[in-house]
Amino acid sequence: MDEVKPVWEKIEALTAQIHGWTPIDQLFALFTITMASAGLEGDVLEVGSWSGRSAVVFGEAVKLLGHSVVHCVDLFPEKSDWRENPDGTYSFAVEIHGQKYQGYQEQTVWRDTFQNQVVKVYETSESLWEIFHRTIEARGMQGVVLAHRGDLESFLAARGTGFRCRVAFLDGDHGYQAVRQDIQSVEKHLVPGGWLCFDDAFTSYPGVDQAIREMILENPGYDLCRQMTRKLFVARRKPDVTGG
C-alpha cells in the first residue's frame, strides 16, 4: 500500500536515475507544498526543468491529488548549443520555431560545473528535450507532466491571461534581471494563497538573492517566507492578494 510507504522513500526511488542537483530534502519540501496546496485552484508551474528530476516529484504529487497538471518550461538546450565564454565559463543559445533565446548570459556556468556536471546529462543523448521526455515516459507521467520548449513569456502567451498556478518553482536563469522578470511574470498568474519557490536561494547566486529580497521579502503581499532547506526558499502569496 503506497499510502503507508514513506514519501521520502518514494521520492528517492523516483529520482534515483535522474541527473540533476536537487537534493532529496528539497524534493520532499516541494512535494509537501504541492500536496498542501490541494484546495487551491490552478496548476503547478516549473521554470527550468533540466532532465526532469523535480518534475517527476511534482508529477507524483499531482497524480495523488487527482486534479491539475505540471507545466515544465525550459529552453532544453542541446549539447551543441553550449559555448565557452572568453573567461572560461559557459552559456548557451538556442533557436526554437525561428525565435532565438540565450541562457546563462548574466550568471554564467562555471567551468568545473559545466565540465564535471552539466556535460554528464548528455551521455545518453545530445538532446535534453529527448532526455526529459524519456524521464517522464518511464514513470508513466505523460498526461500529468507537460513540457514547453521556450521561455516563460512564450509559455504564458500560449496559455493566455486565464492561466492560473498554485505552486511555481523558479529554477531558470539565475541572473538578477532574469529572476526578477520571472517573478513579475508569474505573479500575474499565482492565485491568492499560492506558493512561489526558488532554487539556489541564498547560496552562491547573488542575482537570485537580490531578486528575492527586493521582490518578495520587501513585498507586503507575501507571507510565510522561509528558507526551507540549504537552497530552497519559499513564500506564500497572501490569501487576500489578487493576481494580475
Question: What do these coordinates show?
Answer:
This protein has 244 residues and is of the alpha/beta class. α1 (7-15) crosses α2 (24-36) and α2 (24-36) packs parallel to α3. A seven-stranded mixed beta sheet has the order 6-2-1-7-8-10-9, with helices on both faces. It has a three-stranded antiparallel beta sheet with strand order 3-4-5, with no helix packed on it. The protein is 35% helix and 23% strand. β9 (222-227) and β10 (233-237) form a beta hairpin. The chain contains eight helices and ten strands. It has a single domain, classed as Vaccinia Virus protein VP39 (Rossmann fold, 3-Layer(aba) Sandwich).
Any descriptors?
alpha/beta; 23% strand; single chain; 8 helices; three-stranded antiparallel β-sheet; 244 residues
- Flag low-confidence runs: none
Largest sheet: 7 strands, mixed
Please identify the oligomeric state: single chain
Apparent shape: globular
CATH names the topology as Rossmann fold
> What is the rounded distance between the termini?
42 Å
Strand order of the largest sheet: 6-2-1-7-8-10-9
Residue share in β-strands: 15-25%
Alpha carbon gyration radius: 17 Å
Count up the domains. Answer: 1
Mean pLDDT: 95
SS summary, helix count: 8
Helix residue percentage:
25-40%
Number of beta-strand segments? 10
CATH superfamily: Vaccinia Virus protein VP39
CATH class: Alpha Beta
In N-to-C order, the SSE pattern is: HHEHEEEEHHEHEHEHEE
| Overall SS class | alpha/beta
If classified by CATH, what would the architecture be? 3-Layer(aba) Sandwich
